[in-house]
Structures are given as C-alpha cells and as structure tokens.
Amino acid sequence: MTGWLPAVCAVALILTVLGLHGVSARDTAVFGLYLMLGVVLPGTLMIRALWSGRRTLAEELALGAALGYAVEAVAYIAARAAGAPLLVAVWPVAVYGAFLAVPRLRRHWRGGPRLRTPVWWSWSVVLVVAFMVVRPMVIFFDKYDITHPEIWAGGADLSFHLALIGELRHHVPPTVPAVSGEPLLYHWFVYAHLAATSWVTGVEPAVLLFRLAMLPMLTGFLILVGMTGRRVTGSWAGGVLSVVGTVFLKAPNLYEGENWVLTYGGVQDITWSSPTQTYGALLFAPVVLLVLELLQRRRHDTGRWVLIGVFLLAVTGAKAIYLPLLGAGLAMVIAVELVRRRRISWPASILLGGVGACLLFAQAVLFGGANQGMTLDPLALFRMGWMRLSGLGSQIVPSQASVLGLTLLYVLGWTVAWSGISGLLSRPKLLLRPAVLLMLGIGGAGLGVAFLFGHPGFSQLFFLMGAVPYVVIIAVYGLIVLLRWSRVPSRATVLAAAAGAVLALLFPAICGVALPLGPDRPDSVLYPTQIAFVIAAGLMIIALFVTVGVQRAWALTIVVFMAMSLPGNVRDRIVYQRKTSRTPPVSQDALTVLRWLRDHSHPDELIATTVHCRWWRRDPCDTLHFWVTAFSERRVLVEGWGYTPTNLRNWTPGRSLQLPFWDRRRFEANKKAFYRSSAGAVRRLRERYGVDWLFVDERQPRRGGAVGDFAELRFRAGDYSVYSVPDGGAAGARSPEGR
User: Fold this and answer.
1) What is the 8-class DSSP label of residue 255?
2) Helices (H), ranges, 342-379
C-alpha cells in the first residue's frame, strides 16, 4: 500500500480541483473509465508483449498510455472515414480478445518482473507531477471557467483547437472548418483522439479540451521523462532531478520587469494551451527510450523495431517539431561514431532513414509542402521580442545592438540554467556516449531553430520547448558526475542549493538588465546596484575557488546556478499569470444559438456568418476568429483565416498576420448577403457556394434589406439569430423558435 499511497493522494487532489472547477462526477468517471479500458490497458498489454525488460508499473502504464493514444488515433481515422466513429472501440476489444484467446499472450496480463521503486522516489515524482498539473490547472481553470459557458471560447488558439475537434468529430479527411474548402495542413492526430473520446464517452469537446484531456498526457509524459533520466544517469536521484528540472528549470529572468521573452521556452508554457505539443511530447518520450535501447544493445528484437515504427508514424501526425529534433540527434550520433571509430552506427542510420521517410510523408501528405509561416529569419525571436518588451510594436525597428543584447541575455540565461552540462567535462569520455550525443543533438537543434527561424506566432520556440526535457536530463547527468568526481559533502551541496534559491528570489528585483528599449526607457546596460550585485557574486565565486579548491568550487557553483534557475520564474509564471485578465467572452446568447444550430443541422451543411474579427480587435481586424465553428461544429464559408495555410503562405517577415482575405469574390458575396441583402445575394450563396445556414449578429449595421426578408428565421437568442437558406424563392412566414 505504501507504493500506491502517493498516487492515491495525487488522484484525490486532482479530482478535488476538477470538482471545484465545474467538472461533473459523471464526466470524470466516464472519461477515466474510457481512458483506462480503451487506451491505457490495451496499450500496456501490447507494450508487455513487444518490449521486454524490467520496469516500474508507473512506467509501464505511461508507455501503455502513449501506445494506446497512437493506435487509437489511427483506429479513429479509419472508423470516422467509414462513417461509423464508434467503431474506434473495436481495437481495444480486439486486443483483449487476442490476449485472452492466444495462450502465449495470456501471461502478459500479469506482466513481467518489475523494478522496485524507492518510496522517496515515488513521493518526489508524485509531488512534482501534482504541482505541474494542479498549479496550471488552478490558473487555467480560473481563466476559463466552464461553469459560465460564455467564457469557454477563450483566446484564439483554444477556440481554434476546439473548432478542429468539432471538424474531426464529423469529417475525415479534415479541412479548415473556418474557411470552407481550405485544406488542413497541420498535425491533427490529437484532435482525432479528442473526437474519439467525445464520441465514446458523450463528454463535450470543450470539457475535454479545457479540463480533462491534458491531465493523463502530462502525467504520463513526466513519468517517462523521469525514467529516461534514471536510465541515462544510472540513478533514481537522477530521475527525480530530471522531472524537477523539466518542470521548474527555466532561464532566470535577467530583464527588469514582467516579460516572457527571456524566460520563454519551458514545458510549463504549453501544458494546457497547446494540446498538440503536450500530446506530441507524450508520444515522443517512448521514441527516445526506444532509441536509447536500440543504440546501446547489440542484439535487437523485432518487437522494439515494430514499436518504434508505430511511434514514429504517430509522432508524424502528432507534432511536426519532433522528427527534425530526433533526426538532428541521430545525425550527431552517426557523425561522432564515424569520426571516432571509423564505422557506421547501423541502428542510428536505419532510424535516421525512418525519420527521413516520415518527414517526407508528412511534408507531402499531411502538410502538402507548406511551411505554415516558418521562414529562415535569423534572430527574429529577439527582434520581435524587443518590439513586445518596448511596447512600441512594429512602429520602430530595433537597432542591431538591442537585438544582439537581447540575444546575449537569452543565451546567458539558458547557459546558467543548463550549466550542469559542463560537469561532463570532468569525464570527457562520457560526452561520447550515444545517449549524451543524442540528447545534445536534440537540444542543439531546438536552440538552432529558435535562433535561426521566424514565425508570426513565435512557433519556432516549440522546437526549443520540445528539446528542453532532454537537455535537462544531460544537465542533471553532468551535475551528478561532477558531484561524484569532486566529492562534495552533501551538507555543502544543500547549502549551495539554498544559496541559489535565495539568489533566484533576488534576481528579478536586483539583477535585472535594463536594455535601451525606447525614448522613455533607461539607456544604461546595468544599474549601479546591479553592477555591485554582480561584482559581489563574482568575488564570492572567486573566494569559493580559493578556499575549497577548483573541483569542489566548480561543483558548488553549478549547484548554485541550477538552483538559481529553478524558482527564477516565480513572478513571471505565477504572479503575472494571476494578473492576466480574462479574454472578453463569447456571449451566452451566441452560444445558445450555435448549440441549437449544431443540434438541428447536418454536419455536411455549410454556414455563412457576419463575424470575422474578434470584437475587441476590429480596427485593424484580428482574423483569428474561430468560435462560430468551435461551438456549432460546422464548416463556415468564411469566418477567421489567420491560421490558414493560404494566409500563412502570403505572410512575409515584418508584416502583420492580419492580411485581407485572398478570395475577394467570395468575401464580397458573403458580405453582400448580410449587409446589402437581396434575394439574389442570398440565392448566390446557396447556388455558388452551397450555403445552408446564416448566423447573424443583429447588432451590425446594414445598408440594404433585412436578411429575414430573404431567408427563414429559425432561432434567435438576444442579438444573435440563425436563418436557413431556402432552396429557391422567398422565405415562408414561419414563427421563429427561441426568445
């Protein structure tokens, strides 16, 4: 019971938070039941059959969850394409049947020999996982309160995700629902998972997205990071520190004031707001574990190769960033092996070939050759970051000195956070281990993309976020090696870590850097008090080297640096997020009308609407508007086009993402039907574009006749109405439903 107690306590805490934030017991129970029986358990049975070895039960379940998610997505795509989405339940039933009927498979119900998990390890990991899950839960749940449905739509990204879940609930292959006919050139497997879960459980997609679905993904991901850390470092302590570092380790805030530029790039930045990143992180973690085993073993059984093939295909459609990162890591392993031993690492070469094949498939089929706005634009992150920090936007182009200064601060911050890597220099041969080379290659690729590429939504940083856990593992490995080599007493290590924590709390106020950002901002590089602080810290380090020797001073300095990076983002990540105002909500009336439309229309029917701009950003128009598709689960002729492949293809660095809609003929036809209504204008939407419904914000002014003179009012709530477009002729005199 002792081993289960930490997990039981964590589950009780999470269930309490869910209940306090509007999730019904029915939804929680049904979701948990489906997750265990439809995803985790069948996946775990397959892991046991295909991947032998001693593991903890938590690791086995996490691997099973990842494999279950991967198979479920493919099964749902096939079931949805066949027009019977509930057939997704066939695959777990088939797994159970096979493992009951085949004698050789029955033994896997019990599982193999297990690693004994130290109690302190279980409690440590559970506490970190609970913090990682519960802290963002409280902040995120408060911001998006599902007990008040008008807040569900949230920001542009979350309504975009919700719209894609609705699209995958009804269509395979999917398209961009906010612009009819626009291809969906995106990594969309997570939406297939959420759509499948919604079909089987009956839980609303919004409840899954805003509350339930991220919890098991985050938990499984952190468990697998911990087990990867344990294998690489060779110690349970290394596994715990890997989890701690993944969650907490961030570049210290080296700029005075609240900002995101210098500390952005950690795992906490994407846990709830990016389901694709979280889903992809979980599916990529077993790939790293499998690659490590394949690189270190001389004999390779078929099961591992089958599993890595399945996971690579799943990662291909889960998140586009992970295959390039893995390819860079494998390329580094091959290159070093070739130079060092003058031979080719065949496992790494075969894996790199598989990664290349998956990348070609992704670019040719899933992404259609589109770059989704990613362009070669060195230091774009810091140029755009300077504009945000200055508050001047694109009004003034920053000087090269300002951009380079911000770049150097960013490099300095992450150098401090990952300083543990230098500990491997105490035993240089360890740098040539395949595991170390793989993860250094992953980290180098993540940083390289962040520095060399640009994107209007800062998506180049997702590469860095994907690489962070594996760089952290190497930093922890280097720290452990250095502490063992230098033989630092445990008491001195604890004191050094405490000193680092104290410095971290002082950093935002004392050691902030003032960049020359604008005419009203200071032009000095450092304030006098900051200079004094840096000098004092330098003298302390020098004194440390003199008094305890180079080896111990080096080790203790690294301990201080890494400890200083753990809570270094407290203000930015807790205080600032709590101060962030809620997004202006979608009204309850609009949601009532859209839910009515979802219940009274066919998924293949098309909507035209008057709303294209997020209403608090009309001049200029912010076209990241998706809540009509998100809550109606229907395709729209033209709603918001900011994230479409065509709009991103037309975007160039230095321009705003808010470009005019490219098909002026369609846009004008849509506009005319609402603002200069006539029988011909409404009929044209029907005959030329296949529009069946009109969703209208009645507050918007019109120059011509009312839409109701030429279309049939079917439902109205407050200022929002929905009309059906007749097959021909004028609308009949039918009494509207609603209030």
Assistant:
1) B
2) 346-361
Q: Among candidates 283, 261, 682, which has minimal Cα distance to 696? A: 682
Strand-strand pairing, 691-697 and 720-724? antiparallel
Residue 456 burial (CB count, 10 A)? 21
Task: Tell me which residue range forms the domain holding 654.
Answer: 588-738
β-bridge pairing 635-636 and 691-697: unpaired
Burial 611-647 (b: 16+ CB within 10 A, else e): bbbbeeeeeebbbbbbbbbbbbbbbbbbbbbbbbbbb
β-pairing verdict for 737-738 and 712-717: parallel
595 and 476 inside one domain: no
End-to-end CA distance of the chain: 57
- Residue 331's contacts (CB-CB under 8 Å, 6 or more residues apart) are 352, 441
User: Rounded to 5 degrees, what angle do the CA atoms 109, 112, 117 make?
Assistant: 115
Would you state the structure tokens that stand for residue 565, as one six-digit string? 């990076």
Q: Which two tokens stand for residue 52?
A: 């032998």
Confirm whether 573 is domain-assigned: no
CB 618 within 8 A of CB 720: no
Query: Distance between CA 164 and CA 175 in Å, rounded?
Result: 9
Within this chain, do residues 112 and 247 fall inside the same structural domain, yes or no? yes
Q: Residue 691: inside a domain, yes or no?
A: yes
Give the DSSP H/E element, type plus range, for residue 715.
strand 712-717
**CA 159/CA 142 separation, integer angstroms:** 17
Q: What is the DSSP string of 146-189?
A: TTSGGGTT-SHHHHHHHHHHHHHHH-SS-B-TTBTT-B--S--H
Number of structural domains found in the chain = 2
Domain end among 421, 452, 486: 486
Kindly give, in sequence order, each residue whose CB lies less than 8 Å from that of residue 472, ignoring residues fewer than 6 positions away.
Answer: 242, 245, 246, 249, 418
Q: Which of 176, 169, 177, 159 is nearest to 606 (CA)?
A: 177
The Cα–Cα gap between 719 and 705 comes to 17
Question: Which residue from 243, 244, 224, 7 is spatially nearest to 123, judged by alpha carbons?
Answer: 7
CA distance 448 to 381: 12
Domain-embedded: residue 544: no
Model-level pTM? 0.90
How do strand 606-609 and strand 635-636 relate by DSSP bridges? parallel
264, 331, 451, 565, 695 from 261: Cα distances, Å: 5, 30, 13, 16, 39
Q: What are phi and psi of 573, to 5 degrees?
A: -100, -15
Give the count of beta carbons closer than 10 Å to the beta carbon of residue 441: 24
Nearest to 168 by CA among 91, 77, 277: 77
User: Domain check: are 282 and 146 in the same one?
Assistant: yes
Residue 512 lies in a domain: no
CA–CA distance, 284 with 351 (Å, rounded to integer): 14
Residue of 443, 406, 151, 361 lying closest to 260 (CA atoms) = 406
Closest CA to 688 of 699, 677, 673: 673
Measured CA to CA, the distance from residue 441 to residue 437 in angstroms comes to: 6
Q: What is the mean pLDDT of each run of 10 residues along the chain (739 residues)?
A: 69 78 89 95 96 90 96 96 96 96 92 82 84 74 71 69 95 94 92 97 92 91 95 93 88 60 64 88 96 81 92 94 96 93 88 95 84 85 75 67 80 86 92 95 94 87 92 95 86 81 63 47 43 60 69 84 70 48 67 93 94 60 83 93 86 77 91 87 91 88 73 91 77 38
695 φ, ψ to 5°? -105, 120
Backbone angles phi, psi at 433, to 5 degrees: -60, 140
